[in-house]
């Protein structure tokens, strides 16, 4: 309605969704575009399911209504499915193949969904599945997983890849710029192949 | 003008620098904490800054600084204002000379809170101005105005952002930082600062006389503004105003409220130009009630006649639904979407290696059928372990515990309270329980830090908010000074040791205090504490599930065997619990 491009980044508290949001914000500043976001802080972060709303060219509120997101970036297969109803029809999910089962599965002896079940359910949407853990490790650090995911998602995000890469370089710790730049490029390559 | 992508609270903190703030204090509370966290992390701090021990203490400190003519901000979450309500109510009488801004952050939907109260009601109650931002940019822009208003009217000003402002982000246009030249000076004036009855009656009248000018000024400043476009109108406040703006159909008038008290004459003039008015706001019907007072024959739609919800937070889709129901929108553009059903939930959980898990385990082992009053902190998550029976507000574990114990309830009472919460308002409960002879066990979960809100230091940490070393309080000495004679400090990682002390406590009468002391696992990691990880010797593991029931996120179970994942922090509690010794230090199999 307002022409914003709406991205929902989801994962588990501690996986780096906030840095991913900051990189998108910085890239928007580089291009002189407006951006709005909303994220989870506080107790909910303690290993819980977290969500970060990002609206590129957003002028009003920061929240994306269900059924309206252009892009879902998920750091975990189960979290991808949990938030998949936020995608609009024709939207795309860029999902890391990671699957961390919640502790509730073990303590309450639930039958957990398998990786195959989750992938099958996600195929209802445009799906780009990324082996992000492996790519991040190859790039030089498993901690660069969030940048790998942004690299893959950059195929869809309406920002120049150069702006995103510049934002990555500005925001990651100095010692890890090289690794993260590589992680971004390898993620982007993986996003192009899927 | 510089533009930055900032969290609402970071933008508010920057605005404090622009306003040349002199004095900063508060008590951490989600969603307010990052304002002080940002200010204390500045490379240069030309202001005094402290984390206070509770909100009442903070507000009294800030008030005194403002009496001395400097600019002070005091931050807290909405429920913190309950603790600070005593000084708040009378600070409106005494007034201030330097600007005093009380930031009280509301949490609609109670994302991280025990209730959904509305700070605007306190402003109304105390008769002080209140600013209510609708966006991160506006939150930033309002702060210098809040200080200026406070100085203009000689009153504290309440600034009330909500979670969706504090924890939203946006590209924010920033102003330049101002260096203050103010220096505190207390000018004695008992008629102003000593509120004996003879003085306070005069001060109350002065407060009331200030009101009409405040109302006019808030319209002039532009935080309350309107545009007439047709015969129907929507009046909205806070973040709700941005959702309305995104959906507003052509020909519908719009009024945005960002400051209270609302000028009734101005509001009435707008309302009576319309046939139908819809009010959109979060939490209490603060705007709606004023609109209804001036509406005359105009139809008003809102919470009071069932068009808008009283609870929870607004969202674009709820606002669209309200507008549709009240006939302000033909059809909501948002089709309701159902989440995929029956997925295993992923609630927040105590960290792998959290000291609280071991402490709760030991408590439940010794006091199987006890009643467990608890408190506000990460350890409220002990609910998932069946070790939390009550939580109401900060400090209400020991008091609820003594109340239950004195009621005639026959079961043992074991309450849990964190170190920061104990120092906030728990210590009075302990004093009272000992004084009045309660029979109960108090476990102070001492992780040396205020963890849940983002690891702020407290008097138990040994560091001030600015990282300066300071004497560490002795919890043991405090408890003994309250009159407790059984005070034992234990390491909750040593479950057996803690069990033994709890058993000893169980045999004794009176108030027994056990301090379960171990550093927060997150702080420990940040400080470089490294412990070896543990692993399961699958040949020895019998699959009994003892370790899994402990509920640590580092322990998984597959193919009838336990497995330890890379979240393991090496606390070794599970290794101590395993009945067959199958959990061993990594590489020691």
Question: Any chance you could write out the topology, listing elements then pairs?
Answer:
The complex is a heterodimer of chains A (194) and B (589).
Chain A: E1 5-12, H1 17-30, E2 35-39, E3 49-56, E4 69-74, H2 77-82, E5 87-96, H3 103-107, H4 115-122, E6 126-130, H5 132-139, H6 145-153, H7 161-171, H8 177-193
Parallel strand pairs in A: 1-4, 4-5, 5-6
Antiparallel strand pairs in A: 1-3, 2-3
Helix pairs in contact in A: 1-7, 5-6, 5-8, 6-8, 7-8
Chain B: E1 2-7, H1 8-18, E2 23-26, H2 34-40, E3 48-51, H3 55-67, E4 72-77, H4 78-83, H5 85-94, E5 100-105, H6 119-126, E6 130-131, H7 136-153, E7 157-159, H8 163-166, E8 168-174, H9 190-193, H10 197-221, E9 225-227, E10 232-237, H11 238-247, E11 252-257, E12 259-260, H12 264-271, E13 276-280, H13 286-294, E14 299-301, H14 316-325, H15 355-366, H16 398-406, E15 414-418, H17 419-435, E16 440-446, H18 475-481, E17 486-490, H19 495-507, E18 511-517, H20 521-526, E19 534-536, H21 546-549, E20 555-558, E21 561-564, H22 573-577, E22 583-585
Parallel strand pairs in B: 2-3, 2-4, 4-5, 5-7, 6-7, 10-11, 10-13, 13-14, 15-16, 16-18, 17-18
Antiparallel strand pairs in B: 1-8, 6-12, 9-11, 19-22, 20-21
Helix pairs in contact in B: 1-2, 1-7, 3-5, 12-13, 15-19
């Amino acid at each position: 309605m307002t022409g914003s491009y709406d991205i929902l980044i989801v994962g588990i508290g501690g996986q780096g969704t906030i840095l991913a949001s900051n990189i998108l914000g910085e890239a928007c500043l580089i291009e002189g575009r407006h951006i709005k976001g909303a994220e989870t802080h506080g107790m909910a972060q303690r290993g819980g399911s977290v969500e970060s709303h990002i609206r590129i060219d957003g002028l009003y509120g920061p929240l994306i209504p269900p059924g309206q997101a252009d892009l879902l970036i998920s750091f975990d297969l189960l979290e991808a499915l949990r938030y998949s109803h936020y995608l609009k029809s024709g939207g795309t999910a860029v999902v890391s193949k990671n699957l961390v089962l919640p502790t509730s599965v073990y303590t309450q002896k639930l039958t957990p969904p398998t990786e195959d079940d989750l992938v099958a359910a996600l195929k209802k949407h445009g799906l780009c599945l990324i082996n992000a853990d492996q790519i991040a490790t190859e790039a030089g650090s498993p901690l660069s997983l969030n940048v790998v995911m942004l690299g893959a998602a950059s195929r869809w995000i309406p920002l120049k890849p150069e702006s995103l890469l510049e934002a990555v370089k500005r925001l990651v710790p100095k010692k890890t710029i090289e690794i993260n730049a590589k992680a971004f490029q390898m993620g982007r390559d993986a996003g192009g192949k899927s | 003008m510089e533009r930055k992508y900032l969290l609402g609270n970071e933008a508010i903190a920057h605005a404090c620098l622009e306003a040349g703030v002199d004095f900063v204090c508060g008590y951490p509370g989600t969603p307010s904490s990052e304002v002080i966290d940002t200010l204390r992390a500045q490379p240069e701090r030309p202001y005094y800054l402290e984390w206070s021990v509770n909100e009442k203490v903070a507000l009294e400190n800030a008030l005194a600084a403002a009496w001395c003519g400097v600019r002070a901000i005091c931050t807290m979450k909405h429920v913190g204002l309950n603790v600070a309500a005593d000084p708040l109510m009378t600070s409106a009488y005494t007034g201030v000379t330097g600007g005093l801004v009380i930031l009280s952050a509301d949490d609609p939907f109670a994302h991280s809170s025990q209730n959904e109260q509305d700070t605007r009601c306190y402003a109304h109650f105390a008769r002080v101005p209140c600013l209510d931002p609708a966006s991160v940019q506006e939150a930033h822009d309002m702060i210098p105005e809040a200080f200026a208003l406070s100085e203009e009217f000689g009153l504290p000003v309440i600034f009330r952002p909500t979670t969706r402002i504090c924890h939203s982000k946006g590209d924010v246009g920033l102003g330049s930082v101002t260096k203050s030249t103010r220096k505190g000076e207390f000018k004695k004036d008992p008629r102003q600062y000593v509120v004996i009855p003879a003085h306070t009656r005069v001060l109350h009248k002065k407060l009331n006389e200030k009101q009409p000018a405040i109302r006019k000024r808030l319209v002039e400043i532009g935080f309350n503004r309107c545009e007439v476009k047709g015969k129907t109108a929507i009046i909205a406040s806070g973040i709700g105003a941005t959702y309305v703006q995104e959906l507003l159909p052509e020909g519908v008038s719009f009024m945005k409220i960002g400051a209270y008290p609302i000028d009734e004459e101005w509001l009435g003039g707008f309302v009576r130009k319309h046939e139908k008015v819809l009010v959109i706001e979060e939490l209490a019907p603060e705007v709606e009630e004023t609109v209804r007072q001036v509406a005359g024959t105009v139809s008003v739609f809102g919470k009071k006649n069932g068009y808008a919800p009283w609870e929870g937070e607004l969202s674009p889709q709820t606002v669209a639904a309200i507008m549709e129901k009240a006939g302000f929108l033909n059809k909501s553009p948002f089709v309701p979407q159902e989440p995929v059903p029956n997925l295993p939930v992923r609630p927040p959980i105590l960290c792998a290696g959290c000291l609280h898990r071991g402490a709760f385990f030991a408590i439940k082992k010794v006091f199987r059928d006890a009643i467990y009053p608890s408190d506000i902190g990460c350890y409220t998550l002990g609910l998932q372990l069946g070790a939390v029976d009550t939580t109401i507000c900060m400090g209400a574990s020991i008091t609820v515990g003594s109340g239950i114990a004195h009621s005639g309830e026959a079961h043992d009472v074991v309450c849990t309270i964190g170190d920061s919460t104990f120092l906030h308002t728990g210590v009075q409960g302990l004093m009272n329980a000992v004084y009045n002879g309660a029979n109960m066990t108090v476990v102070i979960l001492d992780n040396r830090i205020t963890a849940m809100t983002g690891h702020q230091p407290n008097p138990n940490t040994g560091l001030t908010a600015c990282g300066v070393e300071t004497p560490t309080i002795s919890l043991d000495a405090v408890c003994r000074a309250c009159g407790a004679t059984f005070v034992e400090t234990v390491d909750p990682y040593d479950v057996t040791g803690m069990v033994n002390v709890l058993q000893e406590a169980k045999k004794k009468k009176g108030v027994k205090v056990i301090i379960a002391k171990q550093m927060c696992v997150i702080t420990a990691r940040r400080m470089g504490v490294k412990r070896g990880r543990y692993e399961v010797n699958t040949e020895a593991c019998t699959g009994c599930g003892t370790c899994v029931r402990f509920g640590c996120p580092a322990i998984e179970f597959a193919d009838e065997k336990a497995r330890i994942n890379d979240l393991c922090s090496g606390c070794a509690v599970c290794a101590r619990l395993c009945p067959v010794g199958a959990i061993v230090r990594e590489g020691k199999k």
